[in-house]
Amino acid sequence: MQRTVIQLLRDAARRFSTSPYLSQKSDDGWFTQSFSDVLEKSSHFALALLEHGFQFNDRIALLAEGRNDWVITEYGILMAGCVNVPLSIKLLPEEIHFRIDHADCKGLIVSANTIEKALLSVSQEQLRRLKIIFMDEDLTPYYKLLNEKGIDLDSVLIMSELYAQGKSMPASALSEVESKIKEDQVVTISYTSGTTGNPKGIMLTHMNYYANSSDAMQFFDVQQRDRLLIILPLDHSFAHTVGIYASAVKGLSIYFVDARGGSKNALKNIPINLKEANPHFILTVPALTGNFMSKMKDGVAAKGGLIKKIFDSGLKAGIEIKGNGYHKVKGVALQKKIIYWLAYQLIFKKLQGVFGNSIRFCVGGGALLDISQQQFFSAVGVPVFQGYGLTEATPIISANTPGTYKLGTSGKVIPNVECKIIDGAGNELPVGKKGQIIIRGYNVMKGYYLNEHATSESIIDNWLYTGDLGYFDEDGFLVVVGREKALLISANGEKYSPEGVEEAIINCAEYIQQVMVYNDMKPYTVAVVTLVEDKIRRLIAQQVLSTPEVLIRLIEQDIQRFKSHPAYKDQFPEIWIPSSFVIANEVFTEQNLMINSTLKMVRHKVLENYRTPVEALFSQDGFKSSNAHNLGVAEKYFVK
């Protein structure tokens, strides 16, 4: 038997048949399709692609929000022997243009939410070789743009018409194509976000997806028909593997956030859809859990008084009682247990209701999840189980699970994946020693598309060199500490990962929204920070802040606040704690290119924008926080 995702879907349709697989919101409520429905419709789409001239190994770009048709079309693309190039809806026009051009795509699938961006991103030369496939029904609003781009309206393929066309065709053509599909056939070319340079096309195969989704579900105990709300975009590797393929392995039921009308509507619909889908678990990233945590805290703070006191004392007691989840906590005073029980019954249960009334846990990935977030959600009763992976590993390498977890770690390595920690000379390091994480297994990518040099640097003797730093602790849990390329480097050559310091600052500060910690062979460390504007302006309106100098002193205190927090006390050597800072002119966003489409900070872009004031911090005159740059930015908050 060929271990392909096509076979995976066929097995799911046989085992789970009429069980719900995909659900999306429509004007008439939730529209659900079973595993058998998806197999049948994917086959119809694949037959239509062949009829329209798509050839074996042709690349087809998919630019759309998460929805049933996203999954169906990916399966259909693969059944036709083609390769999917999933694109983020948050990409900038030039980023879309680069990916379509680099992958030499022959088709482009778009939705009502993305057609305008897509058509404005591609060149006339690209349009001449692209077949446009429209997921929705009504092209009328886009006639003018289509005409301007010189696209014949009749040449745009409508998804529903392709389904109907494929339904009327004999299925024998697919058998012939499928016989040519091997386990090492490329399924997707997923481009890196380009945080450290030009994006690279990661080639993931049938075997990569088949192995990683099967191994992850063997490790993670979830049940058939468990409901999963997909908040992350499907081009995100974590959501892609778990949302599409692992769900097929286990018979999970997927719900998509209602994104009709665009990304802003999707954000507003998350709380509504959580109630409606009533998921058993959700996939998340630190930016999302951080947002949930902030809103919960703000909601409690708004009530004030006794509720706030019960919440604060209950949270503190809960964190102590729960401990790290792996070692049992002994000797907790009865008074603290009573405080926690009271807070749980009166407040925490209601906070859980944000996720519906069936939620058991969340699974975190995509970036390091700070310990304070893990402690918060553990105490509230909706634990976030941190995992670790990267797209080049399809992506899951390790995970904490409800059965075995330890807060502050990335869990245990999943079955059938080998993982080692090595030093710069390639020697394997013992427990507790920090080095580069390397892995080997069926989940390791085939390579980078059209980039043999980068492939040979990343895969050596079948081992994937992740570029991430970490260590195994005494209990066998993997602890990831950051990216090797993002290291802080002191004047004497000592190296340190910035992520932990940054997370500590963000999770404890009241007025700092984002922070990038920086040291490149300097005598001390500095930071670039963005501020929580509405809170700053509220303090100014209340006359708590009277001058720019007072605001800067407030930020000085805020950036050091983590030092008194129990989770961070004495955790970081003093040299890596920012001695001074630059206040950014604006928040880091995707629009100003300082945040990428996966919500990660693009460090080189931040430094590029603030290099002059950052370098000035290392001069005798510019070291003080109340320097000319910061005073100028702070002054703007006082302008009415």
Protein described:
With 640 residues, the protein is of the alpha/beta class. It is 40% helix and 20% strand. The protein has 22 helices and 28 strands. It is globular and about 75 Å long. It starts with a helix and ends with a helix.
Per-chain topology:
Layout (H helix, E strand, L loop, with lengths): L4 H11 L4 E7 L2 E6 H17 L7 E5 L4 H12 L3 E5 L5 H10 L4 E4 L4 H7 L2 H6 L1 E4 L8 H6 L8 E2 H9 L4 H7 L7 E6 L9 E5 H14 L7 E4 L6 H14 L2 E4 L6 H15 L3 E4 L1 H18 L1 H18 L11 H19 L8 E4 L6 H10 L3 E6 L6 E4 L12 E2 L4 E5 L12 E6 L6 E2 L3 H7 E2 L2 E10 L5 E6 L4 E3 L4 E2 L2 H10 L3 E7 L1 E3 L3 E6 L1 H9 L6 H12 L20 E4 L19 H14 L11 H10 L3
Parallel strand pairs: 1-11, 3-4, 3-5, 5-6, 6-7, 10-11, 10-12, 12-13, 13-14, 23-26, 27-28
Antiparallel strand pairs: 1-2, 8-9, 9-19, 14-15, 15-16, 17-18, 18-21, 20-21, 21-22, 23-24, 25-27
Helix pairs in contact: 1-2, 1-11, 2-3, 2-8, 4-5, 10-11, 13-14, 14-15, 14-16, 20-22
